[in-house]
Amino acid sequence: MAAYEDYYKLLGVSRNATEAEIKKTYRKLAMQYHPDRNPGDKSAEEKFKKINEAYAVLSDKEKRAQFDRFGSAGFHQRYTQEDIFRGFDVGDLFKDLGFGSEDIFNRAFGGARRGGSHGPGFGGRGRGAGYRAEDLFGGGGFGQEAYTPQGRDLSMDLTIDFMEAITGCEKKIAYIVDGARNEITVKIPRGISTGQKLRLSGKGERGASPAPGDLYVTLQVQEHPVFKREGDDILVEQEIKLSEALLGTTIEVPTVTGTSKIKVPPGIQSHTKLRLKGCGVHHFKGSGQGDEYVKILVQIPKHLTAQQKKLVEELAKEGF
To answer: Taking each helix axis from N to C terminus, what angle separates 19-33 and 42-58, rounded to the nearest 10 degrees?
Structure first.
C-alpha cells in the first residue's frame, strides 16, 4: 500500500489549526521553497509541490473534513491528484509574496503556458486560468510540455441508494452539453461512498476547443435503515434478551450480502461490539473488504409478569 504523508505534518501545524494559521504557515513555507529562490534545487521543488498539495486540501473546508475523517490513505482513495487541486487558486497569494502569477506557472513549473478555459481546474478563477493540476503536479513533475487546450469541464451530482454503492451498479444520466441533451450510462464501482467523484473523460464541453473537457460526477449515497457505514466497515445493532446476555447465545444477523451467525458470549454487556471479519464493504481501490461490527443491545423488560417478578426476587436473594 502506498504511503501517504500527513498534510498537517507537511505544513507543521496542529490538526485544530485555524484557517489563518494554516495560511500563515503556508506563506512562510512557499517563500522558503519557491523554485525562484532555489534554482536547480530538486529537493526544494519537490517540497514546494508537497506543501502546495497540503495547502490545497487544508484550505478547503470540504476536503479538509474528508481528510480528517478518513486519514491520509482513505482520503487518497476518494480524491485523485486532479480532484485535490480542483478550485485551488493562489494567484493573489503569490503576488503578495512578490511572485506574479506568470512567474509561478512559467518559471516554477517549467514553462507551462495558458490554454483554453478549463472550468474549475487549478487557477480556474482568472489568475493562471487554463493550468490543470495534472499538468503542474502530475506524472512528469516540473518541466512538462504545454498541453493541448480542452473544452470546459462539467460537474453534476448523482444520488444512489446504499446497496447500489455496496455492490456497484450502472446508472443512466442525462445532462446538457454544448446546448444539447446528452444521455450516457455511468458504471458505478462497488465500495464508492458519498463525496467521491468519477471522472468521465471527454464527456464535457467542446466549445471551440479541439478536444472536449471532462464530466465529473459526485456521488451522494442514501442512508440505510439497518446498516450504517463507517469507512469500509458496516455497523448494525442487534437486540438480545437479558437471559441471552447472561447465559450466552448464537444469533443470526443481517449482512450486506445476506445473513451470518455470530456467537454471543455469556455475560456480555450492552453496547459491546462483536466483529464479523470480512463482512464489510469492498475497498474502493484494491482488494479486500472491511468488517461488520454488531452492536449488542440488551433488552431490559419494562413490565414483568408475576412469575418473572418472583424469579427475579429469588435471584436478588442470591445476591444477583
So the answer is: 160
More confident residue, 82 or 172: 172
CATH assignment of 228-317, among 3.40.50.150, 3.40.50.1950, 2.60.260.20, 3.40.50.720 = 2.60.260.20
* Class (C level, CATH) for 154-221: mainly beta
Pair 199, 147: CB distance under 8 Å: no
**186 within 8 A of 158, measured Cβ to Cβ:** yes
Give yes or no for a contact between 200 and 215, defined as CB atoms under 8 angstroms apart: yes
Domain residue spans of the chain: 7-137, 154-221, 228-317
3-state secondary structure of 142: coil
pLDDT at 125 over 80: no
C-alpha atoms less than 13 angstroms from C-alpha of 314 in its C-beta half-sphere: 6
Q: Is there a shared CATH topology between the 154-221 domain and the 228-317 domain?
A: yes
Q: What is the pLDDT of residues 203-253, one digit of tens each?
A: 999 877 778 899 999 999 999 999 999 999 999 999 999 999 999 999 999
C-alpha closest to that of 222 among 165, 288, 302, 292: 165
| Residues 263-304 pLDDT 10s | 999 999 999 999 999 999 999 877 889 999 999 999 998 899
- In CATH terms, the fold of domain 7-137 is Helix Hairpins (1.10.287)
Residues 6+ apart with CB under 8 A from 20: none
E-state strands within the chain: 154-160, 169-177, 180-188, 197-200, 215-221, 228-230, 233-240, 249-255, 258-264, 273-276, 292-298
CA–CA separation, 209 and 36 (whole Å): 33
Q: How far apart are the first and last CA of the chain?
A: 52
Model pTM? 0.55
Q: Which residues contact 114 (CB under 8 A, 6 or more apart)?
A: 128, 129, 130, 131
The residues that bridge with 226 in the sheet, in sequence order, are none
The label of the residue with cell 512578490 reads 98
What are the helix and strand counts (H, E) for the chain? 11, 11
